[in-house]
Amino acid sequence: MPNQPEPATVMMLDCITDDDVGRKLRVAGRMLTYDPSTALVLLSLFSHGLLVDVSLVIDPDAVLSTVKWGGTLDPSVDYNWMRERKAWVWVIGWLENSEPNLPVPDPPPYTSPPYVDASIVLKALNVTPARDLDVVELQSALGAMGEIPPTTYPV
User: How far apart, in Å, are the Cα atoms of 99 and each of 91, 120, 122, 129, 133?
Assistant: First the structure.
């Protein structure tokens, strides 16, 4: 049997700690800020935030242009999540210790800044829009599976 990729563990963003470093995670959250100079995304869920390094999934030339090298952009790749602030996204990646002094992007002025542990960063392998995401349902399902302790969130 050929080698299969390691599956990602679905986790609520507010349950991620430095104990999860080295794990492949699938996390949902709102994309508050994308900083093209550092390729960092500030992902948030309620009052918690997570730094996401999207340098492996972003093609800067493709993002800035509708045409690339004489052809059109790959229609199977949706870059709209980068342009839509507060859009829900799913991120799959490896949680790593971050470099010292990693800059935390500033959230938009119309949002309250989430708590961000700048010592960890999710190195994204895939980012996809999650337009129909029901966070309360997700939290309930994960709680039922025993992945996280049940937590009551304001609705």
Answer: 20, 8, 12, 27, 31
15 closest CA partner among 120, 103, 98:
120
Q: Which residue type sits at 16?
A: I
Per DSSP, helices labelled H in 24-108 are 60-64, 80-83
pLDDT digits (tens, 9 = 90+) for 45-101: 889 999 999 989 876 665 555 554 444 455 666 666 666 678 889 999 999 999 887
The 3-state DSSP class for residue 27 equals: strand
Instruction: Compute how many other C-beta atoms are within 10 angstroms of the C-beta atom of residue 35.
Output: 14
Contact 147, 9 (CB under 8 A): yes
CA-closest candidate to residue 28, choices 128, 151, 154: 128
> What pTM does this model have?
0.79
CB atoms within 10 A of CB 139: 21
In 3D space, the residue among 102, 79, 97, 103 whose CA is nearest the CA of residue 89 turns out to be 79
